[in-house]
Amino acid sequence: ELITRLTNDVTQIKSFVYGMMRILIKAPLTCIGAMVLIIVKTQEYAFILGVLIVFSAIWVCLNVFIGYPRYGAVQEKLDKLNSKIREFLIGIRIVKAFSAEKKENEEFVEVSKALGMANVKALRVAAIFMPLVNFTVNMGIVVILLMSNIKGKAEVGSLMATINYMIQILFALSMVSNIVNRSVRATSSANRVKEVLECTICQKDSVNPIPLKRIESLEFNKVSFTYPTSTVETLKGISFSLKKGESLAIIGPTGSGKSTLINLIPRFYDTTDGKVLINCNSINNFAMDNLRGKIRVVTQRPILFSGTIRENLKMAKESASEEELKEALEKAGALNFVNALPQGLDTVLGQRGVNLSGGQKQRLSIARSLCGGCEVLILDDATSALDSFTEAKVLNNLLALPLMLIIVTQRISTARRADNILVLDEGSCVGYDKHTALLSNCSVYKELYSSQIGGN
């Protein structure tokens, strides 16, 4: 929907502004000038002119009143079509795997037909009211000719001048009607773009931010969080602390709030209750660019941008040297496979790194995070595509670095490498200790251990 608003809707506005601004000035001036001349030169036809203008105004207003919601519906249907296309292209392998091409095709045809019908309804309005404006003006010319014939005293020159003025009004009103028709569509698009531009930013910078030079400690103090569209708490009274050089693993069943918790650290969301503290200060007291410049998040589905590997690695630090890039790749366990590529660091990646495997993309994303000299590294299941040997090597490298390492994982074998483990269940902290202690005092952790490792 956002893509449609930023492309198709903006194009509609641009088309109206570029194509209609000149006519928007010319048409009204022509129309007004012709009306003034009719009133001055042939006052006996002023009444006909007044009736003509009233009816034309009625048709134009009805065009706006009926057409506006219909053009809004067209843009909404276009949103759905674009969304369907995007969904299909992203999941094309799944569609093929389930032999669901016919079903997807039927759904696409249905959405396309809905867009077509919406367009027909919108264009039908213009097809009705624009000819009505022309018909009204032409009827005015016919009435003038009839009146002059009945009176039998009209001068040919005066009559021809009046008819010429009426024709000028006809052309002007036709242009005005066309402008109004285009403006209805442009206004609908403008309102949709306006909604995006007027979206309020939930996370606001402090008026007097505290400079953050380095991160020495991180603390969650009775933090709770509820998504704006929900009434159920996703996190409930979470508390833990972490110091520089320490590591924390966050583990728990699916839907326990692990990813939500880590999204609070770089302020992708703000807490609804409690505080997230860095160096004993609320993270709300720091400028967001300053805060996020020291925190890196690597997700399970890493995003790599079109361009070379070098360009992707330099996102965090444009001035990174060749040695820094290779050092980051080495720590992320990616140097060997990058060196094996024909063009090395200058290998061009496809969209979203389509020409790399899942494990390679994850390692490059970790390397990219290390290039900027981050102080808090958050791995959100970011080693899930790695084999056990490679994962162990990468984690050992990261644990040796002087930074805070937070690992969100589903694997007990990964979690037990951290200094401490936070166990979540249904948004609550049900365990916070080391691996051995949790096995004896946390039933949820014990169940996870038994399901993965086996034994009592």
SSE order and pairing:
Blueprint: H1 2-41, H2 46-90, H3 92-97, H4 101-151, H5 156-197, E1 217-225, E2 235-243, E3 247-251, H6 258-263, E4 273-278, E5 281-282, H7 288-292, E6 295-298, E7 307-308, H8 309-313, H9 322-331, H10 335-340, E8 348-349, H11 358-371, E9 376-380, H12 388-399, E10 404-408, H13 412-415, E11 420-425, E12 428-433, H14 435-441, H15 443-452
Parallel strand pairs: 3-10, 3-11, 6-9, 9-10
Antiparallel strand pairs: 1-2, 1-4, 4-5, 7-8, 11-12
Helix pairs in contact: 1-2, 1-5, 2-4, 2-5, 4-5, 9-11, 14-15
Highlighted features:
elongated; 12 strands; four-stranded antiparallel β-sheet; 2 domains; alpha/beta; 15 helices; Rossmann fold; ABC transporter transmembrane region fold; 456 residues; single chain; six-stranded mixed β-sheet
Overall pLDDT confidence: 83
SSE series: HHHHHEEEHEEHEEHHHEHEHEHEEHH
Tell the overall outline: elongated
**Which oligomerization state do the chains in this entry correspond to?**
single chain
How many domains, in number, for the residues?
A: 2
User: Within the CATH hierarchy, at the fold level, what is the topology of the largest domain?
Assistant: Rossmann fold
User: Which CATH C-level class of the largest domain is it?
Assistant: Alpha Beta
Query: How many DSSP H or I helices?
Result: 15
Q: Report the span from N to C terminus.
A: 51 Å
Q: Name the CATH architecture of the largest domain.
A: 3-Layer(aba) Sandwich
Specify the structural class.
Answer: alpha/beta
Biggest sheet overview:
6 strands, mixed
Q: What's the name of the CATH homologous superfamily of the largest domain?
A: P-loop containing nucleotide triphosphate hydrolases
Percentage of residues in strands: 5-15%
Cα Rg: 34 Å
Q: Give the uncertain stretches in residue-range form.
A: none
Helical percentage: 55-70%
